[in-house]
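I'd like us to work through together how a protein chain folds, taking it slowly. We need material for that, and I hope you will provide a protein of your own picking. Go ahead whenever you are ready, and we will take it from there:
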Amino acid sequence: MTRFNAWNVLKNGFINQTGWQRQWRDPVLKKEYDVVIVGAGLHGLATAYYLAKNHKINNIAVLEKGWLGGGNAGRNTTIVRSNYMMPGNHEFYEHSLKLWENLSHELNYNVMFSQRAHVNLFHSPAARDSNARRYNTMLLHNTDAEFWNLKKLKKTIPHLNYGPNARFPIMGAAVQKRAGTARHDAVAWGYARAADSLGVDIIQNCEVNGFVRRANNIDIIETSRGQIKAKKVGFAVAGNTSRLWQMAGLDSLPIESHKLQAFVTEPLKPILDQVVVFGVGGAHFYISQSDKGGLVFGGDLDWYKSYAQRGNLPIVQDVAEAALSILPCLGRVRLLRHWSGIMDMTMDGSFFICKTPIDNLYLNAGWNYGGFKTTPASGWHFADLIANNRPNKIINNHDLKRFEKGVNIDERGAGPDPKLHG
């Protein structure tokens, strides 16, 4: 694989770009692997990469029923942040943000990570106090956090609705300046390219249809391209986790699959150089501007369970109303497209990276809204779990038994209750 550097870019300019190799192989499926990761999305690819890089395991297959990055990897709003407060969450998301900061150099691929700041608006004294608690906790963990008053906010982001008759009057904002956005497809390609260079087989158009168990292990994976023997198996399939779980003969998985819509407008001249977020009065909204000029935004879940990758109109209306309440200047901007990802939602809104009742099966699931931003740390910690057959202390409570142990890793304060964890 040809490395990206200034010399190779210059050289290929003189030879009609003929010196570049394929970014990853299309390998022949082997009969047996040391580790099989089901799901070639961001988390699956990152896991394979860190297994090969950190743990020197090279006989790895990543199986994808469609094409690489064709699921939730390309169906999100690309926000990266670490403004979490709960023990086990804060350390994890901060680790992920630190990995993001050097990811382009590590992968030798520009993932277009832009630390443009995450600006969380507040609209009442109660919301200010709640944010102060969260951001003071971040400061105690040496994570960057600051408050902007109305004067600084108006100077920095002048287009927001600061009018006295605004539907949601703005009082200020809690800000994480190291946060920002990245390019989702570039992240998928970067991890795929890096994993492939370390010998990982990425097998596309290879759907898992079942499992053959022996004793308390998965012995054979049945796929649309034949059977595969595997010493260890990892699930990283987002909203389809429940389907794979049942194929493995398991039940009682505390996950619901919901749809989360995202939207992008026609390209505009630069108008927003930050990620802006607010939540008040039942509204929930987040927006940023992409490198192509489109405004990328989203809001709440479609509050019913579904595997469809399309959303319903009430949420379109809800998100559009939230957009105009905070940025009235978008009133005549055309919506270019919108889509939906399948979110696997746990009962407290926090993830699972853990062992399962099957001895050689490992689970990566339950990412709620947090899937994209955690890509590097998710892969890093899932690889560590698979390689060492034990969780490290950061993810120790992110297991399937935490609810029966009374451990709620609940950032929102809704409790372990279905339909309250959005």
Residues 235 and 244 are 8 Å apart (CA to CA). The mean pLDDT is 93. The first strand starts at residue 32 and ends at 38.
